[in-house]
Amino acid sequence: MSKAIAPAELAASIRGYQLRSEQQLDRYLTLTEPGTARLLEAMRYSVLGGGKRLRPILVYCAGEALGAPLASLDAPAAAVELIHAYSLVHDDLPAMDDDDLRRGRPTCHKAYDEGTAVLVGDALQALAFGVIAEDESPGVSAAARLHVLRVLAQGIGTAGMAGGQAIDLEAVGQPLTLAALEEMHRRKTGALIKASVLMGAITANVGPGPELDALERFGAELGLAFQIQDDILDVTGDTATLGKQAGADAARDKPTYPSLLGLAKAQELAANARDRAIESLRSLGPRGEPLAALAHFVVDRSH
Description:
By secondary structure, the protein is mainly alpha-helical. It has one domain (7-300): Farnesyl Diphosphate Synthase (Orthogonal Bundle), CATH 1.10.600. The protein is built from 15 helices and two strands. It has helices at residues 7-28, 37-47, 54-65, 70-91, 108-111, 114-133, 142-156, 161-171, 178-203, 210-236, 239-242, 248-251, 257-261, 263-279, 289-300; strands spanning 101-102, 105-106. Strands 1-2 form a two-stranded antiparallel sheet. The longest helix is centred in the C-terminal third of the chain and has 27 residues, at 210-236. It is globular.
């Protein structure tokens, strides 16, 4: 499948999805019982402070390509970004990566405090599942909504994001094989990206079968390509463009694709994973073209 969508058309679609996700996140973060005003302020600070919104974009893109109305995709799109934001807040904590900068601003624990940052992550995770569970968009079956919840839970548990972060913590300063590094990336970052694609498709009432299997393969390979590119940008990017400290992985002696294989080989593997992702869409025909274009965007990005 070729990159059939023109760059201007893709850019317009991305901007539209980003704007829609910002509006929905703002709406879901307008809580009547926030616990405390400081907690709500810190939650909004952490979620609404910019970002690519790749995960909600994938929910919208996959769901719309398969016939779901945009309104029915608002809840899963917002939920997956709330989960992503929670993971960043916790990932930045001193007990994890101890980062001071995120999206060009002080990290949550720097802007507020460590205890508040822990509670922000907890509250965002709870809110994400509530957003899906309480959604009443017409045309989405109860079975589909339950399936979405299950996919999201799997994406962030021990087989997904949390498990990948555990591998990451244990790997600092330790040699990793290429297979172990790939497993870490597929869990820590790739699992939630794969879940985003599946959540959009399931909301479009795509059930188990060859089509969903193809999209699962697409999401898995795209997630790997994204994280390899992230490793590359930590070497080639600058702090101002990235919105976070460039060179942080090397400074912490964390295993990455460039550190293990060199920059050129890492770039080759990112492109290979992208190509495998696109190839998995072949059975979808023209419906897969927006997702294929996004796969190119993921590997071609500069931040």
